[in-house]
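Q: Hi! First time doing this. I have a protein sequence and I read that you can turn it into a structure. Is that right? Here it is:
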Amino acid sequence: MNKKLLLLLPILAFFLFLSVSCGKKTEISSDHVHSYGAWEETVPPSCLQEGKKVRTCACGETEEEQIPALGHEMTAHPGQAPTCTEKGWEAYETCSRCGASTYQELPKLPHELIEHAAKEPTCMQAGWTAYKTCKNCLYTTKKTLDALGHDWETEYTVDVEPTYESVGRKSIHCSRCAFTKDAKEIEKVQSGYVFYLKNRTGVQLYLDCEAEIFDETGAFVCEERFIKGICGADLEPGNYNLKLKGLPKGYFAQEAGYPFDGNEMVFSFKLSSSVIEGEAPERTRYKVGDVLYDFTAVLEGKTYRLSELTKQYDLILLNFWASWCGPCMSEMPMLQETYQKYQKSVFVMGLSIEPSDTAKKIGEIKREKGLTFPLGSDRDNDLWQYFDTGAIPTCVYIDANGMFVSGKGFAFEEIFSIYAKPDSALEESAKTAKILQGEESLPPKREEI
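A: Yes, that's right. Below is the predicted 3D structure, encoded as structure tokens:
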């Protein structure tokens, strides 16, 4: 035991020495040279603020230095223009170290609104309310109106009248549009006069009527289709007067007398027509050969009446179009060129069926195309309902007798030349008439050399 203590005494004495030495401040001689260790960063620098670093000598002395600020490490970003729906920003920079930024936001732009007219829904097509759209973005206030669906009538309507040579046709009509369903044949009639005529455009017209036959004293004989032995009894030879009845609206025939020799009676009538007075009945749909009811149309602030136009012109053309219709726009220069040749004897009016074609827009089209005939909207005139073919452009040619003579498209020169004379020919005719009446003298003959 004592031996172990003796061994531990030197060790205990060493530790006691160390504890006494550490408790006293080490004195440094004047010729001491500091031996510093490595720098240690105590405050890291940032982009804008300096940092600090410290190093320590074995004697315990420390040395401190400032670390320079790093400065920003900027990355450039492109600007973006604002829109109606998205904000924008100027071109800017950001620091990859501290996130500092020069970003400046630009507010959204206001909408540049365009107004659009409402469109009523039809049986098969949706409509929409009056609405606005932005010309720079997809913003819209448009609200769609569902298609109405057909409103079928309960009674049949006769579409084609029967004759003694052909059956007719009837069908159930929609009260709102031109669609029909459940078409059925109507049996042939048993009597009547049928006239097959051709107008000047080569279109065959079909007139079905009856005749009243009177003798020379004016006594009524019978009313039936003419066959030898009318009403089952032979007529006595002599002169008879025939009067047509049941002619289509707008047509009329001169009464005439015809001899009957006991074998056959050869007769002819001079048929004519004129504009029908009054307004066309509801649901009227004209076809070639029909005589039109009188109507008025207001274009460019001026009112035109059909019955007056037929007194002044040999031919009237209603041209139905729309600004969105490519063929309509492409045919206008052709129509204008032809119209200039015939404007003394042909009257042309252009009627847009598009509700959103305003007076301003129509005026711009007229100036752009160089048109000189009246151009306007059918929105207030409502003539398209009588000729609606389901497609445009549609041409309606009306002769001086008020008859719908042709609906042929892109055939202006062809139809104009049938019913009217070019202005140059009219001027030449007028000049010749004056010479014949002595109002003008013939030009002097050229002397032959």
